[in-house]
Specification:
Its main location: other. InterPro entries: InlB-like_B-rpt (IPR013378), Listeria/Bacterioides_rpt_sf (IPR042229). The protein is mainly beta. Helices cover about 5% and strands about 35% of the residues. It has 3 domains: about 25 residues, no CATH class; about 70 residues, Immunoglobulin-like (Sandwich); about 55 residues, no CATH class. The chain has 1 helix and 13 strands, in the order E-E-E-E-E-E-E-E-E-E-E-H-E-E. The strands form 4 sheets. A 5-stranded mixed β-sheet has the order 5-4-8-6-7, with no helix packed on it.
Length: about 200
């Protein structure tokens, strides 16, 4: 790109200093047609930065940073020291507290201010595994009305997975057992094949 004088006079000039990095500035020096009158203008260019905030999501953040500033489009390069939570294993960072967002790693490009949340997996307690029996679960859920039902509840009780054999639904549907109720700290669901 070249910039030249607008006037048809050899004394009039426009000088532009190079921009070598961001953030940075460019000086535009304008010399009038008389060759003596000069005026300098400085243009400043800033790089946009964004903040990544790390939420320990019920964990103990300790002394690690809770936020890092990153230039637009770049990755953070390194993650902070993982938080700790008694009885849980740290599984990584996610854009949603419930883990249903996008995993966030040291190479994820940052294009806006964002909060990422620690993800946890409950450690095995060594107690009952639930064994798939009706009405019992070591992870906080319960079921009634059928056999072979297994439940697992996430550490923050934000999600529940029920494994219900097809036979239990069929028995509920044909009336050989009563309504099938699945309960957890998150919700209770009743399947009544006779009401459909």
């Amino acid at each position: 790109m070249s910039i030249g004088p607008i006037a048809n006079d050899d004394k009039a000039r426009i000088t532009l200093s190079p921009l070598t990095e961001l953030p940075g500035s460019v000086v535009i020096e304008v010399t009038a047609e008389d060759g003596m009158t000069k005026r300098a203008y400085t243009l400043y260019f800033a790089r946009t930065t964004y903040t990544v905030t790390f939420n320990s999501n019920s964990g103990n953040a300790g002394t690690s940073p809770i936020s890092i500033t990153v230039p637009e489009g770049r990755s953070i390069g390194h993650l902070p020291q993982p938080p700790e939570r008694p009885g849980y294993t740290f599984m990584g960072w996610n854009t949603q507290a419930n883990g249903r967002g996008t995993p966030f790693t040291e190479s994820t490009p940052v294009t806006s201010d964002i909060t990422v949340y620690a993800q946890w997996k409950a450690n095995a307690s060594g107690g009952s595994s639930g064994g798939g029996s009706s009405g019992s679960s070591s992870s906080g859920g319960s079921a009634s009305g059928g056999s072979g039902i297994q439940t697992t509840v996430s550490g923050d009780a934000a999600s529940v997975t029920f494994m219900v054999p097809k036979a239990a639904f069929e028995k509920s549907e044909n009336g050989s057992i009563g309504p099938l109720t699945l309960s957890s700290p998150v919700a209770s669901i009743t399947f009544d094949g006779q009401q459909c």
